[in-house]
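thought: fold this chain, then report.
action: predict
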Amino acid sequence: MKYRNIPANNISIKELPKEERPREKMETLGASFLSDYELLCGLLGRGTKAFPIHHVALDLLAYLSSKDPYEICVKDLIKINGLGTAKAVLVCSSLEFGRRFSGLKKKVINNTEDAFNSIRHYGDRVQEHFLVLILNGALELLKVEVVSVGLVNKTLVHPREVFSTAISIRATSVIIAHNHPSGNLKPSKDDFETTKKISDAGKILGINVLDHIIFSSESYYSIKESDELFLF
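observation:
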């Protein structure tokens, strides 16, 4: 899986301008502004001449994206070139700590910006990712789920996939979202038709669709706030 914000032409992390290096970028802007790739580079630290850190991070990211988080273990991670036992343990420990820590207090989604900050790391994906943010009655974020990867339209994004988990965990509302890899956040006709189709299904199910957010890694567009399509 390809990502943006990756050093071109095999440039090492050290060769990047200081402000673009993952650790320095995190120190200046905060962790939420880093892509998944950059977070892994910061976590893994240094690579070797044979296995530069950006290569290891890319291979690890591709692996993590293809697996259920609960299936990831040290014995499988060490099969990735350049990822020894120590770093594999670090990755597994970080994933488990993240699960435990995030479970202590659920994030409350009070506005569009809160929702965007929960998914902005998907903004630099080369392909469109259609997401559903699942909320309880207190607007606490229960789960972010990837519904589909690829061109978003009303045919490919079906309400049963959007609401399946929301129904099973008795959620009361959802926010749907997808990234525009081009960076142009203007909604298409398909975006509006998809929003209406899912919103209408939600009304029948008793699950409110609060918004449809179109986003990049830097910004977002709220269909609800735009008033271009009155649904809510």
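thought: worth noting. The radius of gyration is 19 Å.
final: tokens above.
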